Amino acid sequence: MANFFELYKSQIIYALVVIGSVFLLQLLTNFLYKWFLKQERKKYPAEKPRAMNWIKRILRVLWIVLGFIALSFLFVNEDKYAALQHNFQLILYIGIVAVVTIVGAASTNIWFRASIQRKIKNFEDPTSFKFLRYMAVIAIYITGTLFVLLAFPSLEGIAKTALGGAGVIALIAGVASQEALSNLVGGVFIISFKPFKIGDVIKVTDAMVGTVVDITLRHTVIRNFENKMIVIPNAIINKEKLINYDLGEMKICERIEIGISYDSNIDLAKKIIKEECEKHPLILDNRSEIDVLNKLPVVRVSLTSLNDSSVTLRAWVWARNFSNAFDMRCDLLESIKKRFDSEGIEIPFPYRTVVMKKDKENEQKQNGETAYDQKRNQ
Fold first, then answer.
1. pLDDT band, residue 368 (cuts 50/70/90)
2. Which of 21, 131, 168, 310 is 20 to 30 A off residue 354, Cα-Cα?
3. Whole-structure pTM over 0.85, yes or no?
4. Contact 255, 315 (CB under 8 A)
């Protein structure tokens, strides 16, 4: 045994140094992870430590793999030392690039989030920052991937071309699909020309109405009034004709339309609608000074159409914003209906006459017998 240790003394010391180094690096990784995690929670308590967890896992695996490669020098011939050394440097390079990329992306993401929260607190528009956050994070990951490709000779030319500048756009255009590119371009147009921003209430179709909560590289997210998220690709929403209730003036003219029967008193119905609208607490007096001097009514009520079985009355009522207009419309329809019922104004509804098959057969039989009797009497 003494001769064995004496013979392989340098190799044993080398192996112990490698194993000890791996063990110390693991301890150092755990210590730094806990320290950085503590600092991050102090500074950003609402952030989840996902990036820190990934860095910890990558470093722990990296030290183990490098340790195995270092120990492999003891069991291979000297002519393979160059290959092992190349593999050691390659894995170390990839590990460092991966860690730097994740740290850069996480730091950028946290900075943008903090800036967005600051803008929201100051009642500023955070739309551009939200969109730029996605672009910056993706750009960092793409750059990190290209630096990893530089380590492989067969892919080095592609990586250098892409890192050269315009090659990045050519690479993305070559790899990405036409739909993905159209969504990206649509997102850039939305951010540049600002047809809407985060927090605006928009209407794309009758089924897609809500508040814009996020604009990403691919899609726009709308929260509707049922608290459901609607995800619309940027290429689609960029082509649609939409209504932005928060663009420019926020006040809205809500049209209250109700049909009454031809037998009902039109003047009384118009008076009821006008009174119910004017006494609603959410109504906005949109008259100009000249209109007030001319004693024009706050709410205009007119007969707009003569239908087959009803007369349509319309009231133009103003509200401060879309939310108030919606609530006011619901309240007015209910209160006007109750007033109509109490004062004898009829809201017509379709009538249907149902004829049972059995009754029809009996009627035809009776008609036949009557005709036969009349003919017989003649």
1. low
2. 310
3. no
4. yes
